[in-house]
Write a structure and sequence with these properties.
Order of helices and strands: HHHEHEEHHEEEEEEHEHHEEE
Largest sheet: 4 strands, mixed
Shape: flat
Strand content: 25-35%
Helix content: 40-55%
Number of strands: 13
Strand order of the largest sheet: 2-1-9-8
Length: 289
């Protein structure tokens, strides 16, 4: 959009001005290309408080946290980003924020759906991790009783951020609150009031789509091995079995478009990539047109 272009233009000009003392030739090249003037004849940029938007900053910070949370859950469960997943349940972020930035979150997290919840209790349960070192001198002989109640889930979270356990009210610096997914096919991550639970159920349909993205990555890696530029049109040779074959057949048009493939050859040539795993057997090679 025009607004995005104007923002990028302003940021690049400001960055060139700030970087000029450190990267004089590069900054000069960028600034002169955009303005026709020398960056070294410009004044040092002054801060403009009117450009600050605290509400937008908070909004984007929550979006960034959700995206990073999804990636951390993927990493914890050894699921590559190329593998699409069904959904992520999210609490602690306003529904309007998710509506505005939902496509970005789904794109960055490779998700099919975002599910908003008013309260994390709808999809996760709170787990208290007591700081026994700090609580020992306070609770003394009651510490084991409190620990037993926590293990049994016998505690109450207060609006103040404190936790009531039996007759004791614990300040929030005496425990850590984490959220555990209620569904065994989900994995959650939390920070303060923000909670994300990610579906780990990879259906056959999702597995095939993920395999197609792997094939695309393999083709691009072969380009690098052959020192072929991205815009170079190529010929593809492929032999696939199992999930790999299903992925290529179903996403053939997309793969040909993404890889700038003009022809599929029945023969193989070097270099060749060969993979044999739970998805079946895949052999791929490319050559320039």
């Amino acid at each position: 959009s025009r607004e995005a272009f104007d923002t990028l233009y302003t940021v690049i000009l400001g960055l060139a001005q700030i970087a000029a003392p450190f990267f004089p030739f590069l900054a000069e090249h960028i600034y002169k290309h955009l303005t026709g003037r020398s960056v070294h004849l410009e004044d040092w940029p002054e801060p403009r408080p009117q450009r600050k938007d605290p509400s937008l900053h908070k909004e984007i910070e929550s979006v960034r946290w959700v995206i990073e949370a999804v990636r951390k859950v993927r990493e914890k469960n050894s699921i590559q980003l190329r593998q699409p997943l069904s959904f992520a349940k999210i609490a602690g972020v306003e529904s309007e924020v998710l509506r505005k930035h939902g496509d970005l979150i789904k794109n960055q997290g490779n998700l099919k759906e975002l599910i908003f919840s008013e309260k994390p209790e709808e999809f996760a349960q709170p787990v208290l991790m007591l700081n026994s070192k700090s609580l020992g001198p306070i609770l003394k002989g009651e510490l084991k009783t409190v620990q037993s109640l926590v293990r049994e889930g016998e505690f109450e979270l207060l609006d103040s951020g404190e936790a009531r356990i039996g007759e004791h009210t614990l300040a929030k610096d005496h425990f850590n609150l984490v959220w555990s997914a209620l569904d065994e096919h989900e994995s959650s991550i939390s920070e303060n009031s923000l909670v994300v639970s990610l579906s780990l159920n990879i259906t056959e349909e999702l597995l095939i789509e993920g395999a197609s993205r792997d094939i695309n990555r393999i083709i691009q890696d072969l380009r690098k091995k052959l020192n072929l530029p991205y815009e170079q049109k190529i010929v593809l040779a492929i032999d696939a079995e199992g999930t790999w074959k299903a992925a290529f057949d179903q996403f053939k048009d997309w793969l040909l478009s993404e890889g700038l493939i003009t022809k599929i050859s029945p023969s193989h040539f070097e270099p060749i990539e060969e993979i044999e795993n739970e998805k079946g057997v895949l052999r791929v090679s490319i050559s320039s047109v």
